[in-house]
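Quarterly update, task 2.4: magnesium ion-bound model.
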Amino acid sequence: MRITDVRVIVTCPGRNYVLVKIITDEGVYGVGDATLNGRELAVAETLDKHIAPLLIGRDPDRIEDTWQYLYRGAYWRGGPVLMTALAGVDMALWDIKGKVCGKPVYSLLGGKTREGALGYTHCAGRDFAEVEDSVRQAMAQGFKVIRAQVSIPGLPSTYGQGGQKEAALATWGEASLPMVEVWEPGPYLRTIPRLFEHLRSRLGDEVELLHDVHERLNPVQAARLARELEPFHLFFLEDPLRPEHQPSLRLVRQAATTPIAMGELYTSLWECLPVITEQLIDFIRCDLVHSGGITGARKIAAIAEPYGVQTAWHGPGDAAPITHAANVHMDIAIPNFGVQEMVFFPEQVQEVIPGGPTFRDGSLYVSDAPGLGTDVNEEAARKYPYRRAYLPIARRQDGSMHDW
Ligand SMILES: [Mg+2]
């Protein structure tokens, strides 16, 4: 079997997606996700102009060799653009392998260790009462693990506080330029422990709660927050530090027993190594679509296993349902799965990319169809042309740039 064509499909059914379709001479094809939020066309061009010519004529069965060829053979390697392109190809090749074998990808990864993947959703509100209300609604939907965010008094609304709806849709600023948010650590650090004190006092201890810092704190601030959240027993504190601050996780670790999840901005196994092997985190939450696909992630998971680190793969709305399916195939196969971030995709996304995971009673499930179980409807994709969009940016009150 040989690869005869690589199609790159850019579409915007509510937000932008870059999809890869790899076609073989035997008519079998595979689909992958190569979406990099806010820099989509950089990946699409990389795939179309640089990577597709390297794939024509190759045997699609040789996934590992193709991964090594694209990663090591480039000389200038790694980084979000190249790793996202690589992930798109990798997912499509796993999809082909599954279809050729007549097996779902989870079976090729060793088979099921569990039936479904415990999911977590996003809840938010303008004040504590609204967050509580949102969490209660999620609990009624069946969620057992819930992320809680709240608007910070005195600051205009910040990203992540729109809950489930925001997680599934893109935001467009004026003239399709990034929206600017104002961020101050002081009010944030005063508010978040009070939010969880409120939620625990109203909701009890059973529901698992977590909070996403979005990499916005410096090391000592993150240590303080982790310590002040200790009495409320979070499932984890998500991405407390910038990805560049790996050694500073020692400070957070020494300060508190609040479990730490890190890594949605890591793009390689090598970035994960020190935080796993030094046991500075409890959950590794790489994004399959930005860290080399299934081939990259399964190595990260395997290294994490003996260190007692569980997985919590990134699962945002800007990753296509193909990535969400790949997440769940991994989740139900690996022994050290922890939790899976998820969104409910709008109807038009499901029209373009059918077959993503389904949610039932707190967990996510994939079908037993061969491959990843997802597809790309190219005709539907054409109805939704690319539309430039960016994530918001954050500035301090004095106007200076802050981490996203
Ligand atoms: Mg996050």
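Highlight for this quarter: The longest strand covers residues 3-11.
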